[in-house]
Amino acid sequence: MTDKKLAIIATKGTLDWAYPPFILASTAAALGYQIQIFFTFYGLQLLRKNMNLKVSPLGNPGMPMPLGMDKWFPVLGTALPGMETIMSIMMKQKMKSKGVASVEELRDLCLEAEVKMIACQMTVDLFDFSTDDFIDGIDYGGAAMFFEFAGESDICLYV
Amino acid sequence: MADFDQELDASGLNCPLPILRAKKALAGMESGKLLRIVATDPGSEKDFEAFSRQTGNELVSAGKEGDKFTFLLRKA
C-alpha cells in the first residue's frame, strides 16, 4: 500500500545495538516499506553467519543489572574477566523469557521480507573479512551506492 | 460459530513479532477475510491500530479478555 523507503546505517556490533536496525527494518517491511540497511565498521558483525554477539556492562552505566547489582557493584567489577560473557548469557535468557525475538530470528525475517542489506566494502577489506564470513543474499558496496537509495528515502536512521 | 476465517495466537510474543506474524498470516488470506489475533504484548494495542492505518487492513474490533488482547483484522 505504501511505497515509502527506509534507509538505515548500522555501525555497532553488540547484542543490544543489533536490535534497533533489525526490529525497525522488519516492522517497516510488514508495513510495506522498501528498506536498505548499510552495515559498516562494527555493524558488519550483524551480517556474519555466526553472530555470537555480546553485550558489555563496561562503560555502560545505563545498563540495568539484576538483583540491584548496579547499586553496589563497583564499576571496576564490570571489567572482571568473564563478566561480558555472563552478562550476555543473562541478557539472552531474559529476552527469551520475555518473548523477545532473537537477533538471528529478526535478521531472517528481514531477509525473508527482502530487506536489502549492504556490507560496506571498504570496512570488509579493512578488517580482512572474507565474503565467506557473511550470510548469503547480501550486497557489497560503498557510500555512493547507499546514497542512491538513501537520497530518496522518507526515513534515514544512523544506528 | 467462529466469526473469523483464521486465528493467530501471538501470546507470549513481544514487539515486533505479533505484527510480523499478523502480516505473514494476512499474506496468505484472500481480500475481505477476517483474521483474529490474540496477543499478550501490551504494546500491541497501539501497534495494531497503527498497523491498520498504515497498511489499509481494517481493524474491525479490538478488545481485552483477561490479560489477553484480541484484534480482528479484515484483509484489504
In terms of topology, how is this protein built?
The complex is a heterodimer of chains A (159) and B (76).
Chain A: E1 5-10, H1 15-30, E2 34-39, H2 69-72, H3 83-97, H4 103-112, E3 116-120, H5 121-126, E4 139-141, H6 143-150, E5 155-158
Parallel strand pairs in A: 1-2, 1-5, 2-3, 3-4
Helix pairs in contact in A: 1-4
Chain B: E1 6-10, H1 17-27, E2 34-39, H2 44-55, E3 58-65, E4 68-74
Structure overview:
The complex is a heterodimer of chains A (159) and B (76). Chain A has a domain of 107 residues: Hypothetical Protein Ychn, Chain: A (3-Layer(aba) Sandwich). In chain A, 37% of the residues lie in helices and 15% in strands. In chain A, strand 1, helix 1 and strand 2 form a beta-alpha-beta unit. In chain A, helix 1 runs parallel beside helix 4. The two termini of chain A are 27 Å apart. The model of chain A has no long low-confidence stretch (mean pLDDT 91). Chain B has 76 residues and is α+β, with helices and mostly antiparallel strands. Chain B has one domain: TusA-like domain (Translation Initiation Factor IF3, 2-Layer Sandwich), CATH 3.30.110.40. Chain B is built from 2 helices and 4 strands. In chain B, strand 1, helix 1 and strand 2 form a beta-alpha-beta unit. Chains A and B meet through helix 1 of A and helix 1 and helix 2 of B.
Low-confidence stretches of chain A: none
Main sheet strand line-up of chain B = 1-2-4-3
CATH superfamily label of the domain at 5-55 and 103-158 in chain A: DsrEFH-like
Strand content of chain A: 15-25%
Largest interface: A-B, 14 and 17 residues
Distance between the termini of chain A: 27 Å
Q: What portion of residues of chain A is helical?
A: 25-40%
Q: Distance N terminus to C terminus of chain B?
A: 23 Å
Based on secondary structure, the structural category of chain A is alpha/beta
Mean pLDDT of chain A: 91
Low-confidence stretches of chain B: none
Give the CATH class of chain B: Alpha Beta
Structural class by secondary-structure content of chain B: alpha+beta
Number of strands of chain B: 4
